[in-house]
Structures are given as structure tokens and as C-alpha cells.
Known about the structure:
Blueprint lengths: L1 H10 L7 E3 L5 E6 H9 L15 H7 L11 E10 L33 H24 L14 H13 L3 E3 L4 H5 L21 E4 L3 E7 L5 H7 L8 H20 L12 E3 L5 E3 L16 H14 L6 H9 L5 H11 L33 H6 L1 H21 L15 H7 L6 H7 L13 H7 L7 H4 L23 H12 L2 H14 L6 H6 L5 H4 L34 E2 L1 H16 L27 H22 L15 H21 L2 E2 L8 H16 L18 H20 L13 H15 L5 H11 L5 H5 L25 H5 L12 H13 L5 H21 L2 H15 L5 H16 L1 H7 L1 H9 L13 H11 L1 H14 L6 H12 L18 H4 L53 H4 L36 H10 L1 H4 L2 E2 L10 H10 L12 H23 L1 H18 L30 H20 L2 H15 L9 H20 L2 H23 L10 H30 L1 H8 L4 H9 L13 H5 L4 H10 L2 H15 L1 H7 L3 H18 L19 E2 L22 E2 L46 H11 L14 E5 L6 E6 L5 E6 L4 E5 L9 E2 L3 E3 L8 E5 L4 E5 ...
Parallel strand pairs: 4-5, 14-18
Antiparallel strand pairs: 1-2, 2-3, 3-6, 5-6, 7-8, 9-10, 12-13, 14-42, 15-16, 16-17, 17-19, 20-21, 21-22, 22-23, 24-25, 25-26, 26-27, 28-29, 29-30, 30-31, 32-33, 33-34, 34-35, 36-37, 37-38, 38-39, 40-41, 41-42
Helix pairs in contact: 8-26, 8-33, 10-11, 22-23, 22-24, 26-27, 26-28, 31-32, 32-34, 33-34, 34-35, 34-37, 36-38, 37-38, 38-46, 45-46, 45-47, 46-47, 48-49, 48-50, 49-50, 49-51, 50-51, 50-52, 51-52, 51-55, 51-56, 56-57, 56-58
Amino acid sequence: MECLVDSIEKDLGIERKQLVLGERCQWVAYVPVKWLNSLKERKLLPSSCPRPEGVSEAEIATFLQPSVNKLPAGWTRISIQTLRKSRLAYHISRRSSSPPGWSDEAGRVGGGLDLDTVSGFMKHVADQNYRNLWRKAHGSYIRPHTVSMEKPGPSCLESVKGSLSRLLGCSFIHIGGDSSLTKEAGPYPSPISQGTHPNLLPAEALLESAHFLYVIQPFSRYSLRDVVTYSPAKLASSHAKVLFILFQVLQAMRACHREGLACGSLSLNQLMVDERLWTQLQLSLSDYERPECAELIRGEAGQQGGERADCSGQLEKLPGLLTDWVHGRISNFSYLMGLNRLAGRRPGDPNYHPVLPWVVDFTVPYGKFRDLRKSKFRLNKGDKQLDFTYQMTKEAFVAGGQTGEQLHVPHHISDILSDITYYVYKARRTPRSVLCSHVRSQWEPNEYPASMERMQSWTPDECIPEFYTDPTIFQSIHPDMPDLDIPAWCGSYQEFIDIHRKLLESKEVSLNLHHWIDLTFGYKLTGKEAVKAKNVCLHLVDSHTHLTSYGVVQLFNQPHPQRLVGGSYAPPEAPAITRHLKDVAERCSEIRAASPINGVVPETAGSEGAWPVEQDSGDHSKEEDLEEGTEALDSLSAFDESLDQSSPAPIGNLSTVDPRSLVSRMNRNQGAANHELLDARISLPEGFNPLQALEELVKLDNFLVRGLYSELPERTHTDQTRELSFSQLVQRDMQAFGVLIAEIFFAHRLKALAQNAPLLDRFLAVRKLCLHHMKEIAAPLQQATSTLLQLQVSPEELLKTRTHRDQVSLFEYQPVFEGLPPPSPSQLLSPCCPIISFPFYFNSLHRFVCIYYSHWAEDGDQGRDFVFSLWQQLDKLLEKVQPEGLEILLPFILGLMSNDLTAVYAAWYFFEPISRALGPRNSYRYLLKPLVGVYEKPGYLCGRFYLYTDCFIVQLIVRLGLQPFLNSLLPHILQVLTGQEGAEESQVLGGAVDDEEGVSASPDSYSSAELKGAAEHRSSSFVDFSSGISFSDQAELTESEDFQNGIFLSEREQESVSLGKLSDKSSNSDASAEDCGTDSDSKERLSLRSTDSNRDFKLMEGFLQPGDEEEEEQEEEEGEGEVAPESATFCSPPAPDPRENETLTKAGNLDEEEDEELSEGKEQKILLDTACKTVKWLSARLGPTLSSRYIVRNLLRLLISCYFGCEKHQFVSMGDDNLTHVGNIYERRPVLGDLIAKPVLECLMYVAQLYGEPVLTYQCLIYIAYVVGPSNSWRLNSRKEAGLLSAMVLTQKIIVYLSDTTLMDVLPKINQDVLLPVLEVLTSPNTSFPSRVQARMALCVKTLSLIALVCLRIGQEMVTQHMSETLRRFFQGFSIVSDLKHRMGVSENSRVGLAGLSDGTELGWDLAALEELEVVFSLEMAYSAYIPFNCLIGDSIIKNVLPNHDHVWKLVTLYQETVSIQSPESSQPISPDAHQQKGFALSMRDTLVGDDRVSGTFGSVTVGNRIEIPQDTASEGLRSAQVKQSPNTLGFGGSEEDGSLKQELPRSARMLCGNWLAYWQYEIGLSQYDTRFCFHQIRLQHFTGHSGTIKCLSTLSGEDFFLSASRDKTVRLWPLYNYGDGTREMEPRLTYSEHRKSVFYVQQAEALQQVVSCDGSVHLWDQFTGRPIRIFDAFDSRNPVTAVTSMPAPHCSIITGTADSVLHFIDPRKPGLQHEFRLNSSVTAGLIRCMAVSPSGRSVAVGFSSGYIYLLDTRTGLIMRVWQAHESDILQLKTAEGNVVVSSSTDHCLTIWKESDQKPFHHYRSPSDPVHTFDLHGNEIVAGTAANRIGIYSLLGTSAPVAMNKLSSENFRGTLTSLGILPAKRLLLLGSDNGVIRLLA
Length: 1881
């Protein structure tokens, strides 16, 4: 390869150290991005490629490895393919040399035929067959006898250059300064295209030098080989993924063939894929090179010959490699390195470096051998630790399987060699910067193992080859890190390497190495053997779907054969024999010595095989006898061999004897000796096995056959030569494509095949596998594989067509095979082609994906246009796509939703159609996390306004499900009301908690658990491509809809609005850009309702245990950062409805106003206003319980965050614009937090107006009492500080809306639980505020304003009676500091610092708190507080109430004197009795009741609530406290509405009262962890309208409407809203009366969002208009429909069961039947009574009248199981998650079954009457009987029902016939035989 490296270094200027040979016979280069951009943009090669500065060669080598993700900024990797121009100096024939049976237009379609149509495809087939047959006849009969006059085709070099330029969209750049290149006219017959085909890997540049062509392409990390090798689960879910990859490959091949370029011998390495399975083909141009055509000098040609061998990837074949190792022909080291190469391990890759075993531990001289039967990880960690890891992960896996989340997989080891261990091994040779970035950030050289003994004992991973080959690995390049010590018994590093290598090759290691291979590369990596060996590897069992370029590869699935070392079957020492055997052997020797051989008798001394004559047997020792016995055994075999040999001439020293006498004597003696030999025994060594060699040979052969699928013998090739044609290249491409298909499915069986093996070897390997394992190939691809590889023809006969040695194709296709011409990409892509059945939606899907990759925009406007263009394609695609196609499409949608430029628009456009296609389960799993990410993403996002409109929110509720919306998305909508970034607030909260401790700021239910549903998604990534969906969207609602009448749509919209479509009819968001946020609408728009809730808070302090308060508080403080991730990032909305705008944009009619950028303030106002209106709309839609549990609770928690932080306590000046301010009764001094809290308070008050005063008194006031209640710690934290301020503001707001009676009822609690605790903190000298003076001042003003409001509301008399203690506590604050000064002897007027007051610290007082009190309770505050209350209750009363009245009056007088000094014109002092004389007139500004001039309603003499103070008494304010106030007024000022004392809550038809109030109080009082269904028989509503028995009840997805089917032949749609006190009768919203018989089934189909009902014929109708869509009559009048059910989304089928036991599957979108399954059985099952489909849609359970249950696979119709579940009629079936089936029968049994278990999981028996109706609620079964009993059972299998209730006649009349559950609200719908439906709690 030196020649290629030199050429790249010379021509491109890239240094050798920046290059590495890749896996696809290409070079990978590490280059600067600027260098590459210059090459692309300027079309000029820079003079040289810059070198990386400050980076070592080791680091560069690391960066070049595929598994390394992070590269230094400004650097990238590129792929370089080189072509030797001298090897392209041959011609490619277009016609004359075409093989018989192949068309000239191979791969193309001439004449403009459209192969997508049947007529075009048939014309193409006929034309090609005719041409092919003609050419075959011409080639056979004419061409051999004629002289060809055809001109030679173009040269390969010219053809390749022209095709590459056209195909890749760029021309060649000449480099190297060769002037001859510029003179050559490039053969470009057609213009260069503007862009590359999307499925071809694009080229960065095409370069040409004097001798080479260079193709520069981007480096791709993952190939299809990586997917099938390291991430096989990526393709395991469906065959559609493989089909789509092959579809893209064929698209790329067709594009190449049309440009006259072959793709090469396609391999898995050439297909580049990404996480979304988008596939790009990298052309293998090296296949064009023909070495025999090289025109280089001899020396260079010789070099290149070796280079091509190297580029082939070291094509060792594993069977031969294995055989050589077993028989000892290669070393252990060579064999192990070969296995590493076959496993794909790359030297130098820190994640995937080759591994070798540690063989000794270096503790003794020459080491102690390691147990190779156990992994190094097991030896290090121990069996106990591995068992613990496996057991723990197994338990977690089982638990995760029940919840649907399997985060843990049982395993023992995680990897064989980790990257950290690799760097520790090579620490002495690795730069310090690399070690700090991968091992540990701080440089600690002493932490690395110092010796080989320590290294071997420390590491749990295997060894690396360098410790067996490289002596420099021990030498350190770091001055502060010593060399790696070697054992003392080695004198040098080289000696250690030699000894270590000899140990690896030792006999002990060789005999046991096969065990280590089984653990590392073999069968002990998976299955039972892996568990037994404690070797379960995480990478092989975690079923990961993310792409990776490294992992653990299993090469063998059979036990590896043992190496034959020396052979125990041929021991070097002779076996021991007995003495008797020796004597017999001696006699045999004498006999044989005397026996004639061909008439002569040889002498014993001259016979090599004879036993030697024993001269002195007595002198021989015992050992000598043993040796002689051994020689005797050898003589037997030698004698037998000598019998077969003849002597050509007489031998000397022979005596002549009579042959006949000798023969007779010898026969007698030999017979006796043979008889004695048979009785003799041989003592063999222990363990001796004479059949060992044979057994090892059998084992080896079995391993080769079963484990490696031994290949056919290599075939010889003829030496015929023939000119290469393009048709042969295309043939080769199609054959390689067939091999590629097989390799995808046989990847686990072909791991022993070299990655870059020749096409012929690959072909032979997959052919053999296809013959034996054809079923492993996907069914849609089996025929294609058979056709492309010609499996019906034997390989010998097939390869006969390989006529010459250099033929590129494997064989020649027949001109016509099965009526079709030879295969081509265009032919296979045709939907009419029977070879490959690609799904019909692949063309649309591919077009969508091509637009995705080809038109990606970088700016926001183009991003919106880009999403819109994709959305236009999406609707058509979703009409065709199947569930398998959605798995391919979904990653692209999620990618758009996670990109900042397209996130908002992708959510707006794509969510509804995608979720509609996915279904509720899949939408929840896949779409929820990206949606949360869009809401959570901080910063500016274009069009974010749209995600808060009601039309989008209703889609979220319907499509995702109500519970996921409430838990995960609703908190983000609410947090926008605070107008702040979520990330910023989280940082403030997190920073404030660090120095705060011991104070509980709010109830535990309002802290970390409150918004956990959203916070848990904060760290989620968007690479999770799971599934999930929700019910279809209800139609949009307009402002004209009458909410109180429960109308879905206005009448004019019922005909025009279609389900799930966004239209311009729109939402309250249209007006939000114009309005200011005040909601004047008295009629709310209706929408879908919520599901169950599980986030509750404790209403009273008693819910917290005394010992748990600090723990709760600590959890709250630590969790603040993730509890409230606010996402109020504001953006500019283009227009009210973006889709309308997009249409206008496309038409060129976009208004100029849409292009104007709104100011940030206006954007914020629009977003706040939209969110505020949406929250109000949700409050009305969700109902009282869900609104209180999810909206009110979160709003109360957010209210605290509005005052969190010292900046929120700054007073703001309202100016002269008279803007409204929050909570301002006493004076106009709002803080910044008041402005932020205004939308939150507005929404809270709206909920109170909707549902009445209980929301304020029962929920809000209790929360306030908890917030301000005393804590366990004396220290005040920031959260508590904000809670006090928010409590005062909210209490003031609540009091305004309370009636007089209610106010007096709750006044004692307000005083005791709110005001007094706040005053305790406000006037405490022991506690300082975290925000210091500013917070205490703000709290003082808010508290004073609240006290004033209460006093004005209740009047003078009631103030004296109820508020005396409160006033006394407040005014006591003015005396604290003065009393302390008095005790210290300091003048009260002195401004001496409080630091010198030692008494304060002795009393335990905080000096900072004292300073705050001195500043807050100042002269001005005394004046501002005392004068109004003096006017309100009178001088005499206030003197009696205030013990420190004299001191307060003194402060007031001092303040007046100060003001008089500053304003000389008004220097007259005031007195309490002179208020009326100085103009302190009290005037009433009534804002509610026009003629009521009494502010207090309990006999007060006060006539107003505004105290006007003359200008000469005005104050500029206290500068030190930054108090800004109005210069002319100091009193009860404010706007007309906010300054009012009292406002009546408007009467709403949905106000809580009676039974609804009791139910609401019970629900909000439950713990958030209590999800049980409790039935209390609280009657809420009843629905009348049916005249017959109620047969079926079905709740719609939002729980705001339900359907009922009755015997009166009608189906009715009912609204579900709280009206009245529980006795009100409701009327139906819609009645469907097209049925002719009694209706026994009604349900909403998930995918279609249409109603399915049945009376013997199936009706599909629109739930909004009541009009039928399709009616399916009985298929056989003699066999009516007896049961119906619908498939869950994304399936659209309706399943009907008829009386003849046949299941009919109907797709309402298509005519006719989809398919039908007949349930034939030898057992008489009876009639089908009921059916239930599993939540996944994979199976359907069918219940029969005989008690049998059939379980069928809905995809194949195969009966999975049949069992007799009951003894009589099955009444009802339900399915649940976890393959659970619940059945009830007339035999009084309610049984829970697991699909895979033979016995019932649990069995309930009712003693009195059978359960004839039931429904599921979580893990509970709510069942009803004909005796009007309601039972609640557990799905988990408890021994007794949870509860059993008998319905009272007062709450339910008639006989119970049907039942339905509202899971979110925990309500029960009960149908009776008299036609009345009742709603009970």
C-alpha cells in the first residue's frame, strides 16, 4: 500500500500520519474543515493540508477510528477512494460482447415506459424478452460465422470519469500540475446534474492527477454491517425496515445504471446508514480496476500486486485457519489475531482493540497459569458479585416488564475490553491529554498500575497483543510516570515479551485455549451456556436499537475444538506389558525367525523387525525387560509388514532347509503362540484413548459443518479472455444484490466470513445457507433471493456459464426466466413486478424522506416552509402507510420536533396526523417526550405561540390521553403565566435552597411531587423511537357555542368541520393578539374532557406527620429546580392560523404584516394572553375535580414563584397611566411580583367564579394557612419569604370575592391561621429576611393592606370585636426597637447602629432583623398605618386597642414635624381630632352596588374606603427602603375594580352545590398516591331519554361525553358536565336512530374516531352529525352478527363474530372484507357471545356460549390457545396490559387469565348472582350484578373483593344492565332496564 500512500501524500498534501486504511478498501483522512470547504467552494486544491498542531500521532490514530465520536473543533474525517488510471486502460463494450440473454438497456427503461403501471410493465417485459431471445439466437448462430465490424466501446477511464461527474454532480479537478490533463477533452456526453441522488453518498470533490483518480466523500460512521453485527435489534421489529433499506439501494442502483456506472460487488460495508435507517450507497470503484491491464513499470506493478492483496482485508478463511490451528500448523497468537480480525476488531481503536487472554498472573517465576475456563471479569469480581449483578438486573428487568419500561437487562459482564482499560494498558505510550480526557480528568500518574503483576491483578478485562509483541509499551514518555515494571525473573523488556509469548504458545495454554475462545468469541456468549459460565454479555442481550460501530461478536455457536498437542494416542513412552506377554513374544520371535520367506530363512541378527537374541536374560533388570517387551510389540507390526515384501535375490549368511518340514512345525507352534497372545493383557497409560485421533477429527468436522457451514471446493477457471461489457457489470450488480439480501438475514451465520471476501466466496456461502435455512429470510424476499441467486440451479451447472477467468459476473442469467427478462433495478422497483413485493406506500415514504434530506433549511422562515412542504406530503402518505411503515417514518418526524428551527412548526403540523395514525399507546410512548422537550426548551422558538392555543391543546388531550397531558404538559402551559424562562427560575430556586434549611414553605403536595410529571422528562433525549397515540381530535369550538347546553359545535359548523383537522375556524388565540387578556365571555367553549389524576396535595397541616415536616421541606427545597421548569419563552406568531398563512405564502399573497417582527414586550403579552385564555378554557372543560387537582394546585404553587427572589420585591411606579395593579386596596404600591402574578390570580379567580366560593374557602385558604404556618426552624428561607408575600396577595383577592356571611364565617380562621402567623414573622426580632429590608417592607405593606381591607369590609363594631388582637400585634412592631434602645439608654431618635446593642444578642435577637425592623417600622409607616385606622374605628377605640398608642402617636407627630420642615407652607401640626378639619374626608367609591354607600355591612359608620390626604402632607417616601408611592395620595387607592372592597361571584350553572359539592370535597381531599376506585353512592346526575333497556355504555376519550345503546333501537350521545345539586335530568346531545333492531354494542373506534354500533348489522357513523358513514349488513342472513369489537389504533379494522363461529375483519376505509377466520374445532363451542382485543392489537379473545375461550393471532388467524374457561355462557370479556384476559360467566365466576398460563391467575365466585357487566379501572375490576350489587375486585389477585355495595333504591331504580367508568373522575355510569342512566360517585 506504500504506493497509494505516497500518491495521496504527494497529490493531496495529506501527511501519512493523517491517513488510515478503512474497512471498505478506502482511505480515511483526518483533515481541517477549512481545507475541505476550500476544496468544495473554490474548486481548487489547496497547496497542502494543514497539520494538526499540538496533537500527537497516537491521538490522530485515535481520531481516525470509526468508534470515536468527538473530534477537535475544526477537524473532520473524509473518505478517499483511489483509482489507478493505468488499470482502467481497457474498453467496455456496449453491444458486441453482451452476454446472451441480457438487454443493452440493462437497468434502464427506454421509450419513456412507466413501469409503475401494468400496461407499461407488460410492454417492457415483452420488448425485453423479444430483444434478449433475438440476441441469444444471433450470438449462437450468426456471430461465430461473421466478422464483427463494431467499433470498440469507450475506454473504461473515460466512461468512469463521465459517469461519476454526472452522477455525483461535480466535475473533476486537475491536480499535480500536469499540463496534458488540461488538454484532454473529457467525455461528458450529458450535462452534469445539479445534485446527487439522495441515496448515493455525495462527493466532496473529484480529483484527477497524472496517474490516479480520487473520489473525496464524507466519512460515514455506520454501515449496514455495523447494524446487523452490533445492533441487530434495530431491524428485528419488522421486515418493512429491511425492505425499505433494499428499496433505497435499488433506487441508488437504478440511478447509477442510468448513468452507465456499475455499483461494484455490493456488500454490507458499502451501505451507509444513520439512526433513521436512511441508506446511502458508497460506490466500490476498485472493482473497475483490472490488474492485467496495468501499463506501469515492472517494479511498480509488483508493488501494486501486493497492495491489492492487502486491500482485500486479509482474506483468511476461518475453516482453513481453524484446521491449521487445531493441527498445530499456526501459532496460538496468529490464530487469535485472525479471530479478532474476523470479529471486526481494529488495532488502535480504543473501543474495539484486539484482545488476547492473560495466561499467567506473574506472581511466581514464569507465572502461575490462569484458569481459561473462566472469564477474566469473573476471576476478578468473583462468582458472588456476578451472581448478585445478574440477580439484581433480572429482578429489575421483570419489574420493568410489568410497567412497560425495561431499563435493566440481566447480564454478568458489560464488555471484554473497555476503552478506559485500553488507555490504562497503553498509558506509558499515550499522551497525557488523551489520558486526562478518557481515564481521569486530573493527572495522577501514580494512580496507574506500576507493574505487570499489578496490572494483571487490577484489570477485569482481557489482555492486548502489545504485551506479547511490543517491548516499547513498557517505556514511559511521561517524565513523572515511571516505566512499567516487569517481573524480576526477566532481565529486559524484550526478554519479557519473548517469555510471555512462549507462555501463550505453551502446552498448558494450547490445551485450554479453546475454552477461552468459547467465552470470548464462541457459544458461551449467549444462551444457557452463557448463564452457566456467568458470561452473559450486556451488549448481546440488551436489544439496543442505537447504531454503534463496535461490540461483542459471536463467531461460533458450537463448542470450539481443542488443539491437538502431541497426541495422547501416540505416547512417547512404550506402554507397560506383563512378564508372561514377554515370554510369548520371545517364542513368537523365534518362530518367525525360523519361518521361511520365499524359500529362505533370514538370520535373526540381520532382521530389523525380529526380536534380538537374549544372551544373558538373568542379568537384565526389570526396566530392561520392560523395554524388550515394548520392542516385541513393535516387532509384531514389523513382521507383518515384512511379509508383504519380497527379496529379489538371495541374501548372504542364509542356511538351506527343507521348507515342507519347517512349515508343518511352524504351523503347530504358531497356533499355540497365537492362543497365548489372545489371553495376554497390555497395561496402557491412564486416560489412554486409541480413538482420540478419530474423535477429534469427527469433532472438527462437526464443528466445520454446524458452526462454520463449510464451503464447496474451489472451482477452477478457464483462461479464456473476452472483452468486458457494461451488461456484465450490471449482471454482477444484481447478483451482488441477491447476495446482499441473504447476508442481511444470515449475518449471524456468516461472521466467520471475511468482511471483504470475494463475491464468489460470498455467493457460495449464502447459497448453501439458503438451501438449509431459507425460512430465516423474510417471506417477501425469499422469491427475490431465489431468482437473483438462481437457487433452483445447482452451483456446478450455474458456474459453468462463467466462461472465462476474468468474467466479472458470477454467472449469466437466462434471457427469459419465468416469463421475465433478467432482473434489473427498474424492474424490481415496479409495483407490478412479482419478484419483490415492496409495500405500495414505499414510493410516497421515499419521496417524503428525500424531501427531508434534500431541502433542510437553516433559517426560521425556510424552516416553516420546509415543514409545510413535508406536511403536504404527509397526509397522502398516512392514507396509505401501514403500522410497519410508521416505525420508519416516525424517527424523521421526531427529528423535526427536536430541532430548534422546526420544533414548533413540526409539533403544530405533524402532531395531529401522526398521533392519529399511531394510536394512544404509541403516541404516549413516542411523542410525549419530544413534545415536553419543545415546551421545556429555553430561549426563543419561532411560532411558539401556537402551542398554547386551545385548538392545539385539545389535540394533545385527545391524541395523547388526558392523564399524560395533565401530568406532563399542563404544568408547562401553566408556567407560561408567570412570564419567565423555566431554566432561569430553576436556577434561582436551586441557588436559593443551598443556604436555606429547616423551613417548610408549602405543603408537600405543592412541592416536588406536584409537577413531577413534567420534570421527569427534563433529561429525556429524543432518540427514543417507541410508539404511542391517542383518540382522534374532537371538532374545534367557536366562541358562539353554548357551553351550558353542552354543544360540541355550532350548527353551521357541524357539516363543514372534519375530525382532527386544524382549520381557520379557530380558537381564542385569534383574538389574543388584539385583546389585553381580560375574559369577558360568559359562555365557555366546550371540548374534550380529562382522564384520571394522581397528583393530589394534602389539604390540612395534620396530613404531615410531626417528624416528617423537615424531611418534606428538605425534599421541596432540593426539588425546586425540576418541580417548576418554566417555559415562558416568547416568540412572534406569524398569524392566527399558520396553515392558512402557509397557503397564502405559497400563493404569493402573504400580507406584509406577517413579515414584521413584533417587539419582545408585545410577544410576551400575546403569549401570556393566549395561555391565560387557554387555562380558563381548560378549567371549564376539565370539570371541578380535575381543575382543582391539576390547575388550581399548580397555580397556587406558581404564585409563590412569582415572588421568589429579591428583585420580585421591588416596588414599581404605576405612573399616570392608571394601570391596574394586583392586590392593591390600601395604597398603590405594587411590587414587581404583583405584575407577574396577575395572570395567575386572574385564572384562579376565574375557576372560583366558575365553581363557586368552595374553591376559595376550602382549597385556597387552607393552602394559604399551610404556607404561612410556623415551621420547625427559626430561619426564614427564600421560599418561605415568597410564600408569605403570595399568601397576603391571594388572601386579599379572596376576601374581595367572599360574601358577607362567608367572610364572617372564615374570619376567625383568617385571623388565627393567616394574619397572626404572618405578623409573628413580620415583627419578629429573631428572624431576618433573606432579601433583607426590601422583603420585610413589601410584606409589611401587603399585610397592612389586607388588614385594612378586612376592617373596611366588616365595619367599626366588628373590627373592635374581631380585629383587636391583629391590630395590636401589628402596631407592636413600632415598639420593639425603641424598647431595646430604652433598655440600653440610647435615645429613640438616635440613629446609632444596632451593632452596639449587646442586649439584643443576649436575648437571642438577630441584629440584621433589628435593623430591618428599624427601617420598616419607621415614622412614615406609623403615619401611614395609624391615621386611616384612627379614622376608621375612632380615637377612643384605637387607644383602648393599642397598648403602645402613645408611642405610635409620638411617631406620627414626629413624621408630621419632619414633613412640616420640608414643606414650610404647611407647618401646622395635626391631631387625631383634626382630621375632618384638615381635609381627611372619607368618600366611598363603590364599584359593585350602585346605591350602597355602606362599606361595612355590620353597622359601620364609615361611608367610604378612600382616604384623601392633602398635598402638603404628602411624602416622598422612604428612600432607604426604595418605597415609591404616589405623591398626592396615601390611602386606599386603586383602580375601579382592584380597589373595590367587595365583588360578587357571578352565578354559574356549574357552581358546586349539593351532591356535586360533597363529591368535590371528597376528591380533592384524597392523597395523591391513592388511585383506588371508591364507590360511595353519591348521586350526581341521571339521563333520561331511552324507552328500553340500556344494553351498552361507552365513554368517549375525553370523559366529557358518553354513548348509550338501548333496546329501543337508538344510540344516544350524552354530555357529562356538573349541573345542579345532583338531581338534575340531562337530555341527549344527539340521537342515532338508523338501527332496525335492538342495539347491543356501541363503541368509539380509536383510529377512525367514529362510532361503531351493532344490532345484527354493523353501523359506522359520525358522532358529531349523527349521519351514517357505512352500514355492513349480515354476511349471511342465516348467521347474524352476535358480537362486535374494534381494533386499537393504529389498526382500523372492525371485528365481527357471526353465529357460524366465523370472525370477519372489516376495514371501513375499503370495500369488502379484509379477511375472515373460521373457528373450527372438534368441540362444540356454541355461539360467539363476546370478543376483546388485546391493547397491542396482536390477539383477540373470543368467548362462546359453551364457556370456551379462543385466543387468536389477529395477524395470521392462527389459534394460539383454546380452553374451557367456564361451565356455562360467557357474558363479557375484557383485556388488559400484560396479556391479561378477564371473563365473567353465568356460572357466577369472575376469572382472570394470563394468555400463556393454563390455570387461571385468579378466580372470584359470587355466591348469589353472576357478574353480567364489568369494566376495568387500573388494577381494579368494577363489576355489577343483576341484584344491583357493585363489587370492586383486584386484577392482582387478592383473595377477596375490595368492596361490595348494594345500590340503594333512592340512588338507583330498576335492574342494573350495563356499567361504564370515568377513570379520571372516578365516576360510575349505570344503565338500567327502565332506560334511565345514572351517574354516581
